[in-house]
Amino acid sequence: MLFLPGNASMMISIFLTGLCFLFLGPTCCSGSRILVVPVDGSHWINMEVILRELHSRGHIMTVLRSDKSWYIPSNSSIFTSINVTMLEDEAADINYYNKMLLDVMERRRLPTFIRTFYQQYLITYMLAKGHEIMARSVSTMLDDPVFMKKMQDSKFDLILTDPALPIGVVLGSYLKLPMVFNVRWINTGEGHLTIAPSPVSYVPVSGSELHDQMDFLERTKNMLHSIYSFVEQHFFINPAYSDVFQRYFPPGTDLLSLELAADIWLVRTDFVFEFPRPTMPNVVYIGGFQCTKSGPLPVELEAFMQSSGEHGVVVMSLGSLVSALPRETTEAIAAAFAQLPQKVVWRFVGERPSSLGNNTLLVKWLPQKDLLGHPKTRAFVAHGGTNGMYEAIYHGVPVLGLPLLFDQFDNLLRLKERGAARVMEANSLTKEDFLEALKDILETPSYRNNIQRLSQLHHDQPMSPMDTAIFWIEYVIRNKGAAHLQSAGFSLPWYSYFCLDVAVLIMALTGAFVWASVLVCKVICCRSSRRKNVGGGDHTHIVS
Amino acid sequence: MLFLPGNASMMISIFLTGLCFLFLGPTCCSGSRILVVPVDGSHWINMEVILRELHSRGHIMTVLRSDKSWYIPSNSSIFTSINVTMLEDEAADINYYNKMLLDVMERRRLPTFIRTFYQQYLITYMLAKGHEIMARSVSTMLDDPVFMKKMQDSKFDLILTDPALPIGVVLGSYLKLPMVFNVRWINTGEGHLTIAPSPVSYVPVSGSELHDQMDFLERTKNMLHSIYSFVEQHFFINPAYSDVFQRYFPPGTDLLSLELAADIWLVRTDFVFEFPRPTMPNVVYIGGFQCTKSGPLPVELEAFMQSSGEHGVVVMSLGSLVSALPRETTEAIAAAFAQLPQKVVWRFVGERPSSLGNNTLLVKWLPQKDLLGHPKTRAFVAHGGTNGMYEAIYHGVPVLGLPLLFDQFDNLLRLKERGAARVMEANSLTKEDFLEALKDILETPSYRNNIQRLSQLHHDQPMSPMDTAIFWIEYVIRNKGAAHLQSAGFSLPWYSYFCLDVAVLIMALTGAFVWASVLVCKVICCRSSRRKNVGGGDHTHIVS
Questions:
Q1: Residue B461 needs a FRET pair 20 to 30 A away by CA distance; which of A338, B28, B103, B145 works?
Q2: Do the beta carbons of residue A253 and residue A213 sit within 8 Å?
Q3: Pfam families, alphabetically (chains A, B) (predicted)?
């Protein structure tokens, strides 16, 4: 008898399914028409990698891009693009974010309490401004009959959008298209805070820089952040769209109700990275979907890597959006690098630091995934963007974090809590501190062991995150939505959602019952005491 | 250039993975030692089908069974069994449940309000009694040094248990084994009510016979059920185990804390069947994992099916546990069947109804899945057990439900809400009503269309539910648990979980702030009015 190992039958069935797909051709939904409304910057990197996969599966895509886009090309072999007005002067200027970085770094010198609220205020200001711009853009689109006719005539099967900016949400809802989100950020924070119950006691609010095991004061801080988010949503974001909703949607529509009607939320995290927390049936985790095995490096870079010998290489990059650090910080970093036995590849734009050592190679761009997957790489100095964090997890490289903006503080905290990273404040960084932290990361085995455990867990999935993303996008196309995965709770008014009306009734009934009982007792007591008194009188009378 | 369809690359990778598995042999965790603590009756059917799959993958299993077991064999080619004392006299008597059925049916004639609470009381009584028996069994095991040494020496890699009865939970926790639940029911209701946030406003409590879109009165009813469940858990279930926990576990341990520490919950539903609701990262859906394609029928039965011609066949079965219905009910059913143009296969134990028609075949046992998957089958008359409901979904057969006990009312409601079933009260059933309902199911196309839509959605999964179950069982073995998927909220006391301590602080501070502000205002007003009075006096004085 032929011995088949234990998992043979499962694998034979997968194998046969694979063969069927290969020879019977694409699935029923290949060649679908997909409207894509992405967000610019690093978010586009996340969207493009999915579009490439969808293109290879025969889907036809139309991408809405800003005519002032930084990253999204107007000509592409994988999609058709349509120019629309999305960004306005200041928001379209990449230097705006560099200025903001310097401002945030400056304010991080303030005491924690003031700093946190200042930072939050800064984000609220940006949010309010951004949503005003978005609302004007949406209005312009809906008011443009030629554009809207083109949209309607295109008979899209699906809208795929990143709801960090809600143009896609509003447009897709107006066109009544099945909707899939490629999402991490929405409205006032991380996507889960909008779609899933998020108990304040163990779900840290975005920007709070808290983990999931909080003491009393941390829970208080989290509660304040949560209240602030609520205020932000209802007083700074919602009003921006009231005019659009009044003109184009049924009464009672707000941004939240449209977002909650999305069919599938492809969330760009997983629970190897994110703290465990409640989730919903239409939330699908695709964290690390953009990661792939490392490829060969350019010849010169490979030679540089090999020249590091047994000590290996440190890779440093602070992401795509922000390229400038204050001079004293870069000098301190360069001086610390110079004292390492390792070699260093540093993605650097700006004036060359005078303290740069011979072991450090400055490059304007680096093939990050190929470097992180290289066997000589020992550590990753990073700003903590989600993409970089997932590449570190995928390739199992420990991180020294220098968070600068947005979610980077929260992201790095997640790796730090699992013993896979150290985090430093870029504004107060000295050569000595940076060197000590870097040596710690390089020489203490636990950092490498912990990130490799995360890497092992991340790879231990029934299906790759990219295949998962594609499956669910095509699922929504095939089934014309996924209404059966959407919670009925979203259609309730807030007081019914929290059962406050029911609680009032039950308390009123209980109160009435207690009151009636007391009344009855009183009446009975009164009567019996009166009878007693009357009886006593009689008795007295008889006796007398 | 060779044209490869869109999904070719994904399929090639799956195909290659399959080949690797086939030729490189079993995964690292094949040959693991698994301790299995099942629940008897229909629950065992669910467990056994997983054990067969695990056995085929080379795992070695030890099953704890009651020496009075109804269904679990003491000799098996796929596992070793160990006899323990689990059930006691009354609970081990299958007729006990038949008696209970008649009692429940009788009480369903009562007005809804009284009936619901009577039924709930009956369940509480059973629960309290069952947990007392369980606690004694657990105590006997933990007190038995020979048994416990055997357990410890076996060096199990995992415990797989159905927590509807908590013997496995307590034993596995004591042995500190990684734990996987094969679960639908736990403590006071459906598994989700224990592990995931369950807003009362749209998550119907088990036994409430409510759906997810409730009006005010229904939400009030659900809230009362929820309060009742809380009382049941804390006053009827927890106390049963206090002695065991005091003697064998650290202070503060209760049943809930051990259950919430399970690594993976394989829940025997999915959202094709269950109403969408919040879930948790370590909850995996395997609804319908026991379903397989239909096989050929025995020759005689096949001939009977074919003899039905274009009208087809109705299949009726009321499950494995309860086989007796009152005589007048079976007579009414038989008389109604006799008037159908269809043929009928009826799983029937008891006295043959006098009104039985020639078109009806009575059988003591029937190959349910092969019958439901048969092209001649037109409808399924069922009691609403989960297994039967999933077989109806899998094969796309509309259901006429006669719920009798336990979760059957809630299960059938789920199919009814989706337009795939009708439900009747077995106690008040007349021939005319039954015939009308059956004809409706057979002749109105929407029932068949709706259940076939559910069937299509159920089959549209990235991986079969059985492969999913096996993946996650082996995942827990490979990674020695899944602590990274367990919520930190479970370790909080209830007042911290609901942030009541934080709310009190914030309200106190707000109150103090308001009080201080009022005080300051008063002082200022007082002073200014006094100064005004003094000024006024001067003025008066001058004027006078």
A1: B28
A2: no
A3: UDPGT
B317 domain-assigned: yes
Contact A184/A164 with Cβ under 8 angstroms?
A: yes
Q: Check whether residue B179 and residue B211 sit in a common domain.
A: yes
**A26 contacts in chain B (CB < 8 Å):** 5-7
Q: Could you tell me if residue A428 is inside a domain? A: yes
**Contact status, residue B226 vs residue B205, Cβ threshold 8 Å:** yes
Number of domains in chain A: 2
The boundaries of the domain holding residue A413 are: 299-459
Looking at residue A69, its amino acid is S
Flag whether A124 is in a domain.
Answer: yes
Which residues, 6 or more positions from A146, have their beta carbon under 8 angstroms from its beta carbon? Answer: none
Q: Which residues, listed in sequence order, are joined to residue B80 by a DSSP beta bridge?
A: B62
What are the structure tokens assigned to A232, written together? 């932000």
Residues A321 and A359 occupy one common structural domain: yes
- In this structure, the answer to whether residues A440 and A470 fall within a common structural domain is no
Domain membership flag for residue A517 = no
- Two tokens at B261? 């520490």
Pair B120, B207: CB distance under 8 Å:
yes
A214 and A337 belong to one structural domain: no
Q: Check: CB of residue A308 under 8 Å from CB of residue A278.
A: no
Q: CA separation (Å) from B253 to A341, B173, B188, B247, B257?
A: 52, 11, 18, 11, 6
CB contact under 8 A, A199 and B497: yes
Residues 220-279 of A with CB under 8 A from B: 220, 223-224, 271-272, 275-279
User: Is the same domain home to A404 and A348?
Assistant: yes
Chain A residues with CB under 8 Å of B49 CB are: none
CA dist list (Å): B246 to A343, B22, B141: 59, 50, 15
Q: Are residues A230 and A312 in the same domain?
A: no
What's the pTM?
A: 0.87
pLDDT in tens, A241-276: 999 999 999 998 989 999 999 999 999 999 999 999
Over residues A447-500, the pLDDT tens digits come to 999 999 999 999 999 999 999 999 999 999 999 999 999 998 888 888 888 888
CATH of residue B304: 3.40.50.2000
